[in-house]
Each structure stands twice: as structure tokens, then as C-alpha cells.
Specification:
2 copies of one chain form a homodimer.
Chain A: H1 4-11, H2 15-23, H3 30-43, H4 49-56, E1 61-66, H5 73-87, E2 91-96, H6 101-113, E3 118-121, H7 128-134, E4 138-141, E5 151-154, H8 156-169, E6 174-179, H9 185-198, E7 204-209, H10 214-227, E8 233-236, H11 239-252, E9 261-266, H12 270-273, E10 279-282, H13 285-300, E11 309-312, E12 315-317
The structure holds a DNA duplex (16 and 16 nucleotides).
Chain lengths: ~325, ~325
Amino acid sequence: MANIRDVAKSSGVSVATVSRFLNNKGYVSQEAKAAIELAIRDLNYKPNLVARSLSTKQTKFIGLIVPDIVNPFFPELARAVEDVALQYGYTVVLCNSDEDAEKEMHYIETLQQKYVAGFIVTTNESNTAQYQKLDLPVVALDRKIHASIPTVTSNNHEGAHMGTSYLIEQGCRHIVCLRGPRGVEPAEDRVAGFLEAVKGKGINTLVVDCPFQFDRSEAIAKRLLLENPSIDGVFASSDISAAGALKAAHGLGIHVPEKLQIIGFDGIGLSSMLTPGLTTVAQDLYKMGTIATRLLIQSIEGQSLSEKEVRVPVQLMIRGTTRSEER
Amino acid sequence: MANIRDVAKSSGVSVATVSRFLNNKGYVSQEAKAAIELAIRDLNYKPNLVARSLSTKQTKFIGLIVPDIVNPFFPELARAVEDVALQYGYTVVLCNSDEDAEKEMHYIETLQQKYVAGFIVTTNESNTAQYQKLDLPVVALDRKIHASIPTVTSNNHEGAHMGTSYLIEQGCRHIVCLRGPRGVEPAEDRVAGFLEAVKGKGINTLVVDCPFQFDRSEAIAKRLLLENPSIDGVFASSDISAAGALKAAHGLGIHVPEKLQIIGFDGIGLSSMLTPGLTTVAQDLYKMGTIATRLLIQSIEGQSLSEKEVRVPVQLMIRGTTRSEER
DNA sequence: TTGAAAGCGCTAACAC
DNA sequence: GTGTTAGCGCTTTCAA
């Protein structure tokens, strides 16, 4: 592999000039430029990015920390991150944290030793302190981690309110809220939205903890439906949980949407694959991912952030698990 | 950030000794060791991995090239890769190629400039030549790219044979095969297995091209089912396509599995979330991912490969889209 | 406009 | 067992 010295030699200038040329910094005469261009082509020269990084203390790696890429919520985010990263010449390092603070810590440290340029984080506030003293750009995606860290989220509260209200409009009078895990910000916001929508409406409600996992959700829903035959609506805090509830209903022979209406949250691809199609409060995941990545890159490249906290609107996606004229 | 010189100074030895200590190479006396350990702790020293890489021409990055992480087949693979990578101190760079040779090329080049240690590739043979002249360890996962490159796949042929035969046993007499895209090796192997299973059995068959995409699969299946009311079985080359077929059947009011039996391939999480649960030829995706990663790391670290071509067995997962006593 | 040379922090050959 | 020192390939300051 040719290096910068070879290029310098072959084009009859110094390495400094070649470097200036490569980085578009400082003066380089037309003749020099031409000669260098030629040499670069001749030698098929590609800058050694590691050497550059050692010198600049900056790589073009972005660390993306997600709880678990197998959870279908995250690939859509990851894809968006990757697309924007590519566009700006960055490359993304995938880290599954399993919501384990220690594992997350490990990644933060390792990637820091590797001079990553910044982090996009979709996990909880467990390591807030680390991120703050990191002195690297960080943006929080889907969940706020700290007021000082730029954040991109959906309008969870409003979305939950919207979804729940829709359930009520469609005639539900005994609604269970399959809330997500405690301490996870979007989950908290969604319960709040649910509770607000339900207040004073004379609705019988039940709020139950439920992880963002299909099997657990199905089991939980099954038990609930058996114990409370009057339940006629489920507001799930994620599509995965809604899918579990739907499966549970099917298993019990409860007709959806005739006897039970279900509404999910997220709008992942899965929601349209189910039968009936899942009515859901859809987030614009791709957009969230791209915005977060642009913010991060802005921040890496020293521009002032256009925004500090972005809330992407959600949209009620009406499909077959709720009754409605539209269908 | 403290560097190796600081540690050397603080512990009263030379940088060479510290380096030897860090890498467990060459002799280091007990006293030296103790002093160095102390200094490292004191200074909270972390080796600069970029500097190390410049010197060794090796990073601990693994490039993982997938067509599209949003396709639910790949996250399970990616997760496995990441888990093993972590275990061995590697870190994975995620690249979505969209099956686009140029995009893939771009990643190969960029990552090479960044001194990645090797690649795990789950895309087609488009860039075989590049990989070969890459002179970096590469392993192919899910698809063979070249005889010279270590490969981990499932037993696609046998799996398809098994699935198809099961459909026949359960009484199907007019089976459509939703074959995957042309030129994709696993898809080809699966059609072959299908065809073999069906041969001489007096089965009415139809083989139709069908991408690994839900919407397209649903549309294709819908048209087929409308045009050929006698179809009583679908062998899909992927769970995604099977899900599409299932949705199409539901839409047309065709009962599954009474009137139409469906069998998928892959065994992704989705298959159990559908109603009825999808009968499928399940691959052990996690295992495939771990094996591929271990092979790659062996190869990176200069050990001779334990195997050159691994075929992981598949398993028929009987659920609700086929008729059977078990249910 | 350009070049010499001093880093960036680590590894490894070689001498002691 | 240990230390000196020359790289690895690039950026950047400073002087010319």
C-alpha cells in the first residue's frame, strides 16, 4: 500500500503539501495539485485512516448503543443511523447493551480508547454520569438520558393519549394498559398519556407492567383476559406487547376487534404483518434516526446544534384490531 | 489521558517494559509488574488503541456486511456476531449493503483503510474478486461467496426437502413454491430441495419468484391464490414470504390450515408471533452467527481453521399453519 | 506556497 | 530482564 511519502516523492512535492491537498487546507498551487492528483491515481493511494486518527485524535466511527438489535424496534433506528452516517463518511459500531450498565460502560470505554467520534444512545439513564464526563458528543435517541444531552424522541404522551382516546371512541369501557418497564422514559410517558385520556371518562382501567417481549406479553395478556372477562380494550405500550395480546386473544377464542380491541405503539414493520393488522400509534422511526444522527454529526464537526431537543410527531395508524368505519 | 510514557515514568521502568507487560510478551520481573500495575491504576491508564493499531496494522474491528438490518433475518445473526466479538474483545461495524455491489465495495475499501481485522459477509457473490484480493480474513455467512472463503450455511436443500415433504404428508396436492430471488444461493438450494421432494409424487406445483419482502409476497400470494383456487399448500422460501402468504389467505377468507397449509423457512422470531403460528423450517441463526464469528477470529489470530465449511442443521418447527395431530 | 521536522502513542528489534 | 530507539503514516507548526 502506497503511503503519503510515496505520493510526495512521485509528485515531486513534500508530504506537507500532499497532506494539505488531501485535507483541502492551506495553499496548494495548481501545478502541485495536478501532480499530486496524478500520483494518487497512479499509485492508487488511499490515506491510512488510522494514522490520520492518531494524529487528529478523531475517527469517523459512531458508536450506536441499543439494548438489543433483535428487538424489532431497533433495526429501523439503526438503519436510519447508518444511512446518514454513510452519507457523511462515518461508519457505525453496533453495541448491544442488554440494558446492562456494566456492559454499556465497557463499550463506552473501549470505543473511547478507539477514538470514536461520538455516541448515539438508546438506553436508559444508568450511565448518565459516564456520558457527561465523556467529553464526546452524545445524542439520546428514543429516550432522554439527561437534560444536558441532545435528545430525539417521539411525542409519547400525546400519542398515548390519542391512541387511548380512540379506543374509548370506539366503545371500549374496560381497558387494560400494558405498560412498559418502569423507569424507561417513553414507557412512563405513555402510561401518563393513557391515564390522562382515561380520566373522568368512567372507564374501568387496569395498568399492568409488561416488558417489551412477545412471550411475556402474551402470557401476561392471557392471564389478564382470563381473570377479567369484561376487558374490551388493550392499550399496549409497544407493538411487540400488542402482538402478544393479540396472540393471547386468539388463543382464548376472543374475537378481535369484535370483542376486544387492541392498539399498539411504535409502528414497526411487524404491525402490518399480523392478522388483523395492528392499529398502532406509529412513530416515524426512520426520521428519528436520521435527525439524531445529523445532530450528532453537527456536534462532532463543531457546528452549533440546530436544536437541542426534538420531538417527532406520531401518527395513529388505524388497521384491523380496532373497530371502525374506515375498514 | 495518561499515555504509556507516563506509566513508564511513574513506575520507574521504560516504555518497552510497560509495553511488554501490557501485551504479556517477553520477560517482566515481578517488581516491575507490580510497579507498573500500580502506576496504571494510579493514572487510570488505558492503552490508546489507535496508536497500537498504527503500529500493529490491526484493529479489533470486524466488519459485518448485511443487505439490510431491517429484514428481520439479519438482526438475529448480527446479535450472535456481536456477542462473540465482544467475548474476544472485538467490536463490530455494521454495514447495510442493500445488495448493491458498489455500496459494498465502498465499505470494503473504507474499512480496509481503517485496518479492520476481517469481514463477515452475508451478501451475494457480487464482489467475490474484491474479497479475494483483499488479503484480509473473510467468512461468508448464510451464503457461499466463493470456494476459497470459509462459509457457514444451513442445510437449505435438506430443509426444503423436509418442509415440502411434510406438506405432502399433511395432504397437500397443489403446492406453490414462493422461491426467493434468483442467484441468491440459499434460495436456489431451497427450490432445488422443493423440486426434489415433489418429484414423482403426482403433486401439482407452481414455482414463483418472490422477494424476501412482506408486501410483495402478500401481493404475489394473493394473485396466485385467486388465479388458482386449487392451491392447498405454500412452501415459502422465507418466513417473511410465508407471512405475506398467510396475510393474503386471511384477506381472501381462505382458512389456514384447513383449506391452505403454509410452511416458511428461517425460524425468525416473527414466525411465532403470527396467528396461527407459522410452521417453518428453522435455522439456528444464533449458532450460525457464533460459528462464523469464531471462525473469523481464529483466522484473524492466525490459527488454522477448525473447519472450512460448516453446515448447521435445520429443524422442522411445527406450528399452526399446517394440519397435524400435535396441535 | 512550500518543506522540514516534531509530534500522535504504541510496538518491537536490538543491544546491553 | 530491561532500555533505547526507530518506525507505523499522518497532521501541523514554523520558518523560509
